[in-house]
Amino acid sequence: MTSNATIDYDVQNKVVGFVSKLVGRRVEADEALISSGLLESLAAVQLIHFVENELGVAVEDGEIDLANFDSAQAITALVRSKASSQ
After folding, report:
1. CB of 68 closer than 8 Å to CB of 78
2. Do residues 46 and 21 touch, judged by C-beta distance below 8 A?
């Protein structure tokens, strides 16, 4: 059985890897992605698409906000909450 910590670690690493490729440098899990201007609108849309298609999480319109997408940690928390509610 896989632990929640292992799943969180895997999700966080996937998000960090994806964003790092988008911006051309390594980002940290707690680094502000959108509020810092690191990701602009098109990249933010790509990030949402990644979460839906690569992580298998349906993101509702009301969940598309800074609190859920401003860091790899925040995205991991969103994925965890969505997985636990299924």
Report:
1. yes
2. no
Handedness of CA 64, 12, 80, 50 (dihedral sign): positive
Q: Is the model's pTM score more than 0.85?
A: yes
Closest by Cα among 14, 70, 72 to 37: 70
How far is it, in rounded angstroms, from Cα 78 to Cα 67? 9
Q: Which two tokens stand for residue 27?
A: 């980002």
**Residues 39, 3 contacting (CB under 8 angstroms):** no
Q: How long is the chain?
A: 86
Please list the ranges in the chain whose pLDDT falls under 50. Answer: 1
Q: Are 55 and 11 in contact (CB under 8 A)?
A: yes
